[in-house]
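To whoever picks this up:

The nightly regression suite flagged dTTP/UTP pyrophosphatase as changed. Nothing in the input moved, so I suspect the structure step. Input below, exactly as stored in the fixture:
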Amino acid sequence: MSQIILASASPRRAELLDQVGITYDIQSVDIDESVRPNESAEDLVQRLAIEKSLAVANADKPVLGSDTLGLINDHILVKPTDLDHSIKMLSDMSGNWHEILSAVAISYNGNTHVKLNRNRVLFREITQDEMIRYWKTGEPQDKAGSYAIQGIAAMFIQRIEGSYSGIMGLPLFETMQLLNDLGISNLETSE
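Regenerated output under the current build:
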């Protein structure tokens, strides 16, 4: 029997829960992810995680919602609309640090708790030819910021500060803190 409901169809989030031994049922949710006027990136990512965790109706077990976004120069990194847009984002990140924010929220029995995870990623210098060849792999098209840390783009990453799992889309340290607070463990007790 599953321990939680994962309010996400993300294979990466499912993979991360599998990694730490948490069992789950998947329920995909559809929420409005529009940025509100004057909403900070930190507030946005936490609000979206909370809304995802609350979007599962009549849940009889804890519901986990998560959201991740990237920032460079205070601009949110979105999914690229085309090759030129991808090149613009990758060029901005080339040789520079950018930030990845991940929030995880757990809703259960009328209570919701959220934690924010903040990370920094340094890209090496990337040539325009590399950006074009990378685009042709198909990987960046559906990725915010045009990359996924666990994919081909790992070759661009010179250094990270923070949580690999948070950059990937589900900060496991914070997730386990919230689950442990509810008495949910991934480790069996010895008796």
